[in-house]
Design goal:
mainly alpha
Length: 140
């Protein structure tokens, strides 16, 4: 579920330290009206994310939102394995994860273990113990 565009955005981040392409790529939506500064602490909490969540609700099926969730988990695994522990990239991943949970019909009822089971059973993406710790830190 780690898509080619995620790789491109990860490399772009390494050179530019811009996280907006990562968030847009992970959520598979264009994030309009949000600046790069809005994606960094402390502004990340005060930005208006309602339009992005509404766009996801209106344009994605539950299955597509499941795919987005698995993509975020795969991206987290990759970033962790590459030793990318910068606050800005993990703030962006937390944001993407929380916007997904707001848009997904079951987002509020699913816990991290439910998402991991989905990854393993439906998509064949194994999540080991160290990855589980990283994923549990995504909840804001």
């Amino acid at each position: 579920m780690f898509k080619p565009e995620h790789s491109i955005d990860l490399v772009r981040y390494i050179y530019t330290h811009k996280v907006s392409p990562i968030v847009g790529s992970l959520l598979e939506v264009a994030i309009v009206g949000i600046t790069e500064d809005d994606l960094r602490q402390p502004k990340i909490a005060s930005a208006n994310w309602g339009p992005t969540v509404l766009l996801m609700i209106q344009t994605k099926t539950e299955r597509e939102l499941d795919d987005v969730g698995v993509g975020i988990i795969a991206f987290c695994k990759t970033a962790s394995r590459l030793g990318m522990h910068c606050d800005d990239i993990w703030d962006a991943l937390k944001l993407a994860w929380n916007l997904l949970l707001r848009a997904h019909p079951d987002g509020g009822r699913r816990n991290t273990d439910d998402w991991i089971k989905l990854c393993e059973n439906k998509y064949g993406l194994y999540v080991d113990i160290s990855d589980r710790h990283e994923l549990s830190s995504l909840a804001l």
